[in-house]
Fold these 4 entries.
Entry 1:
Amino acid sequence: MADGKILTINMGPHHPATHGVLRLVLELDGETIVKVTPHIGHLHRGIEKIAENMNYQQVIPLTDRFDYTAASLNNLGYCTAVEKLLGIDVPKRAQYIRVIMCELARIMGHHLWIGSHALDIGAMTVVFYTFRDREMIMNLTEEVSGYRLTPSYLRVGGLAHDITPKFIEDLRAFIKWFPTAVDGYNTLLTDNIIWRKRTMGIGTISAEDAVNYGFTGPSLRGSGVPYDLRKAKPYGSYEDFDFQVPVGDNGDVYDRYLVRMEEFTQSLNIIEQALENLPEGPVNVDNPLIANPQLDDVQEDISALIRRFKIQCQGPVVPEGEVYHAVEGSKGELGFYLVGDGTENPYRMKVRSPCFILVSALEKMMLGHMIADAISVIGSIDIVLGEIDR
């Protein structure tokens, strides 16, 4: 060090590249990072404790607020965990529609990631293209749920209701358009010399270190580990679909970028297969104590109205037991640990957040790099503080 002094600075929580409310205390030797201390908790809302005072159906909107960039994936993880406690199987049509919604959510999460990640590093054009295409998915989400960002479309036992003909028509248009959009992202970034210099060899983490830190999702696969829960432990009919798990070679910012770019294509492939092979049948489990009656029935039959009111206000009684169920979220393994005590409320809910694990490794990936590279590293792991702080 030139003058024998270490400079300590705060980066965030208001810095736009800290993705909301992450605070990093950086210790610098000149502009070289020698120590990183992450501070979280600025967005903490106690959702896990709030869930214990609500019935199982009422918890679903809370899960939307974890990774709000890809909310349907949170819904799936939670609903499937409750269904395990109840010992019920969801109809095949509902499973396929869930797959469609979750892969759309994965694409939507990756849209927000690449747009903001590129903007953080200085590539402004990308964000306009990704948000244009993200709006198309939000229109699809709004068509079936009435909401754009936090749909709460999934239900314990199935779905709120079936998809509409307009949803299918608009989804086919999106499937036809999206490969062209991905080509546009690649044209802007993949071979761009400035992008490559800002990302190659930056934030490198080996496969061994990534596993030891508990990495999952694209950040783990970027280090060359082909672990994807949709393949390793299939759930919700993912075993019916043919898709590839992209992996990187070097475990740097650029490899994590390439993995997610390929996931755009793989997710679209899954959606297309699900739509073309969509089964007929109901979208809710055949159990009057769990499945909501349809609104048309509610308007004509007083018993249906009473049953819907009871399910929404009281919810199903879940037997005693404990389960853990994880899904492949857009950031990695999103797991729900639930304890049932024979009542309508969960006795305990604990969420395994992939982003919480990723933040713990920021120092490992940043040490020895310049302060400007901290921006690249944060963006490359695609953290969402709503999921970290829960």
Entry 2:
Amino acid sequence: MWDKRYYSMAMTHALLDNGALTLETWPEDLATPDEVDAVWSYRISTGKYPAIKENLPDLKVMLVFGKEGHVNPMRDIPQVHQAWEGLRFGCGFWVRLNPDAAYALYTTPDSSIVPPDNDANSEPDDWSEAFEWGHDKSQGSAKLFGLAAVAEMADRVHENNWDDN
């Protein structure tokens, strides 16, 4: 963000508090603790689910994610799991994990990179295998599946159809 690397507040403060860096030796391309403190709370949604539910009671959500990515440190894809739990159960929203296979297949003829066709409002039986619900990131598919998600959501809004499949 803003031509700098932003790490979590805890990580950034630990760099300073543990003496790994000082404000005098702080790299120009790394956000300082003050810069991180000013914006990081906007990136954390866990405490915001009650406000989201109150302000957007009819929100529908599609979480688009790949099997691997720059923020997928583990097979259970914790950021997707956290968002799923908060949006589905904390807010009671309609939530889909990746677009329907029909939309994904419309964007690519290669069925081997299409995520499985799981219903909305369903989750992996075992979140340690959640990456299997993700799309393959080969052949530029991240952009393709983003477009598939937009197309599906546009159709659902137009038809006001929020069935699970």
Entry 3:
Amino acid sequence: MNAAGLLPMRVLIVSDAWHPQVNGVVRTMDTVVSHLAGGGDTVEVIGPDRFRTMGLPSYPEIRVALWPRRKLAQMVDAFRPDAVHIATEGTLGWAMRGLCRARGWRFTSSFHTRFPDYVQARTGLPPGLAWRVMRRFHAPSSGVFAATASLRADLEARGFTRVRPWTRGVALEQFQPEPSDPWAGLPRPIALYVGRVAVEKNIEAFLKLDLPGTKVVVGDGPQRAQLQRHYPQVHFAGWRQGEALSRAYAGADVFVFPSLTDTFGLVLLEAMACGTPVAAFPVTGPLDVVAPGTGAIGPDLRANVLAALACNRDACRRHAEGFSWAACAEAFRQQLVRVEPNGSQALT
């Protein structure tokens, strides 16, 4: 048995977001997989990297699997899972959903991304139809895992059922205050953004602010070239990972999170773990993660940035220490269900 008293299981995770992509879904699932394997489970992740793929229009870095069902079925049969979790609603997610439905298998799913809002941000189309598609996708799931209380309430208000709590964690051993300053030479204070440089992140709401010091962007994406031309005074640093990313957070004076559509925002925890306070809008994610004294939340992003500069960095670190990846993985594991329709659903 593992630490939670559960017998080892064969857990299959199907995700359209997987390596080499760099985003919160990949980081979450990768960390959970590591914890499950460390607890004795056998875990298989099936992602787009194992299929013929194409890049999404206007976002070629994101690859989607083409006609995956037959090959996916062969992989599933070879693995013989005890439990199936569908992490995303892309082509692989739909294919695995269809396979489970055809076989009468139970499965769980998770809601990581507000795709209807992303569609609206990219195309201007009303999100109503996309929300209906998302609701249909998750309807047969035995449990829809959602990261925050405000997100769960929103999903339930939209007609989603069997919504379950599943929070996130932060790698405290990696993200911590650092004595070195990667932004030496740039005028202070440093206002930092970390994440994809894409329209759905609402990053321009940050870049256009009139702020003292320097605005820094760590990340890349389809909007980067355009935004670099429009905002030459902003320092675009590209992607950073590992220790370099930790130093980037720790060397900033305030972390700015302009997104209106994220479901959690792992970068919020990473910044606070490095002692950096947060400025954000009052939306899902910041409302659930940022505690009093660790940042400023409100409709005026500029005022939030200036207010966050006065927050205590030690308080930010202490707050982040309350978020454990071990607890996140344990909650995920305990809410899985057996694929077989006979017998107990719980994996206990």
Entry 4:
Amino acid sequence: MERDVNESSRTFPIREAEFAADAYDVERIRADFPILSSQVHGHPLCYLDNAASAQKPRAVLDAVRDAYETTYANVHRGVHYLSERATTEYEAARTKTRRFINARHDSEIVFTRGATESINLVAASFGRAFLAPGDEIIISEVEHHSNIIPWQLLRDSHGVVLKVAPISDDGEIDFECFEKLFTQRTKLVAVSHMSNALGTIQPARRIVDAARAHGAWVLFDGCQAAIHLPVDVQELDCDFYAFSSHKIYGPSGIGVLYGKAEILDAMPPYQGGGEMIKTVTFEETTWADPPARFEAGTPSIVQAIGFGAALDYVTGIGKERIQRHESDVLGYATQRLAAIDGVRLFGTAPAKASVLSFNMDCAHPHDVATVLDRSGVAVRAGHHCAQPLMKRLGVTATVRASFAMYSTRAEADALAGALQSVKEIFA
């Protein structure tokens, strides 16, 4: 039974009007994140692992708890009050997501378990329906494994050809080499909008224009860009855009695949089950229209509601205001670390955001991260699910500090101070 669902009136933002035109009250924002008041090994928590997963504001925690306490029921299928209310909240999150990236229609927003599933969905459904053996897909050296392996699986099962665009020493796609990879068989370009390991922002619109000149479709892995950059999928004119809730201060276990309506309409199902059908007999099944066609089974109902609250929170503060603040902290942290002898920075392109990757001459990245943790500084050390990129950089791992709306210059100072402790221990 289909029904009209109005957007929920429940929102959890900080109202942008409450901020002065030029003000950014980071301490007020930090107060909204309970975990940031924690102590770690006797030190205030300095959380710099936001590229892996961001912390959650009270607005999201309250929305999740409230949904379980007052709203929870399965969506779309029930005629009772709780199901109607849960459906309203769930579909409101879809509308908020559509507005967040400026898609044309709610039906272009498919909820998945995360960006990884979003990319796998495209590879499994679009790839098998639209690509033929011998057709070519272009990716780049900077990609996360989630934007490499699905295409390798498609290559191995379907016979497509995978081409890899090289990057420059500072982490940007080498555009001259990129354009030379195109042939008449190039059908898809699948690249990250912003690198999770380096923070490099790739020239998304230029990539789309190059692909269009050769009749190719475009998918962006937008996991990092969706939170740190303004994203307008209509302006980009990309065909697919994948990102995750948990990096945008929302719950884990839910992600987004944006796809142009006409392409989603032509794609076959990714999984079979409840909700994704129109009719079922033992002889034949017909499919529901998107997005339901790609959301088989009971979805992540409460996670979607929490995600909607996270989008309210971010848009309430203002993405441009957040971006300016993060850029200031990143620039300051970069200066602090560049001044430390024995620190090597990676990803030095002018266009970058939020991520500061580095190594120290005196210690392995895992040892560096361990010492930093004892000082309360949480960073990530390893290959960051980007082993081909590490090979290109000539290292096995890096230390990655990544910043968010609640990061501060004081935390950059704490990071730099803790690195001095590393030198004292290992030098």
